Amino acid sequence: MPFLADRLARVKPSPTMAITALATELKAAGRDIVSLSVGEPDFDTPENIQEAAIAAMRRGETRYTVFDGRIELKQAVCGKFKRENGLDYEPSQITISNGGKQVLYNAMVATINPGDEVVIPAPFWVSYPEMVLLCDGTPVLVSCPQNNGFKMRPEDLDAAITPKTKWLILNSPSNPSGAAYTEADLKDVAEVLLRHPQVWVMTDDMYEHLVYDDFRFTTIAQVEPRLYERTLTVNGVSKAYCMTGWRIGYGAGPKALIKAMGAIQSNSTANPCSISQAAAIEALNGPQDFIAPHARVFKERRDLVVDLLNRVPGLFCPTPEGAFYVYPSCTGALGKRTPNGETIATDEDFVRYLLAAEGVAVVHGEAFGLAPHFRVSYATSTEVLRDACARIDRACRALS
Ligand SMILES: Cc1ncc(COP(=O)(O)O)c(C=O)c1O
Predict the structure, then answer these.
(1) Distance (Å, rounded) from C-alpha 250 to C-alpha 93?
(2) Which of 71, 87, 209, 216 is 20 to 30 A from residue 296's alpha carbon, by CA?
(3) More confident of the two residues 142 and 15
(4) CB-ligand 1 contact for 272 (6 Å cutoff)
């Protein structure tokens, strides 16, 4: 009898973490490595949030809380949804977890039966299909190429839906492409979903506050109220409040789903960290004035990276609406030879070459389900970005 569960044979370790681990290894061996593979803001958690955590610790808020989050935090989340998204939720419709990642996973464990299908637009955040597989479901990938702005066309969604489809996962702005759905885009998606009442929507709005050039963020339950009863809206404090390590995410949806997700959490991890919950209350209820300046910094970096990468022979870099990633195409590098005489056949060959030749760590598009591309995270300083783009340029000019 095999010791490991069969389902583990279906999932693979996170490729983004694999490239980060390889870069770290090379760095430890003394190589000069520039990493553009991180998925978190490089700003510190704002002072007021840190102070709220310290105060909570001193007040003795160091014990278990309710397994799916304190009522004060659920109320703060309801306030956020009302204020920023025009959505009405009550605390019994809110769940708090160890990051948005756990919210998504709880929802899948709570709802997916073997063989249930989950539609995932590609390129996708690497964990979505793996989570579906861990729940014995079937990911159904819908290709969203560059010429569609990396967004799903309604007709492609319609074609992907079958009687077995349980969920559609939406992620706007997207990791890895940075693409964001406008209100009109979401209306088109909603039109299709209204024709298929068995399909629910899991919308991952983690990068809500990182949108640029006057892009107006909207979320599907707001755009189409008729979908409210079958939408799980997922968000968190990681990206907007620079709190990736604190591990607080939240979900809002119909009570029965939220209750089922709570049952999973109460028997697995129980409550997210009590101190982090206190910090998240301050994040959501406190001053929001640092969010716009952070977004301005990210926009400047995006513009810099798009400009520099578009000067590199063989690359094409579209300008994304949000998040802190760009997703250039490396089609022009395929078929070329490196100075060592190796042929670049895939985007994975390309990123391995960048790492070996110039010490630049990025993640290949195949890992996100859409090749030949690579993901660049620009959540780092402009000096690092300039250096990295110069290295990429040198590497590409050395191809023949
Ligand atoms: C699209 C997307 N969703 C969810 C998450 C997870 O966020 P959290 O830190 O809240 O678990 C990430 C983190 O990289 C992400 O990129």
Answers:
(1) 10
(2) 87
(3) 142
(4) no
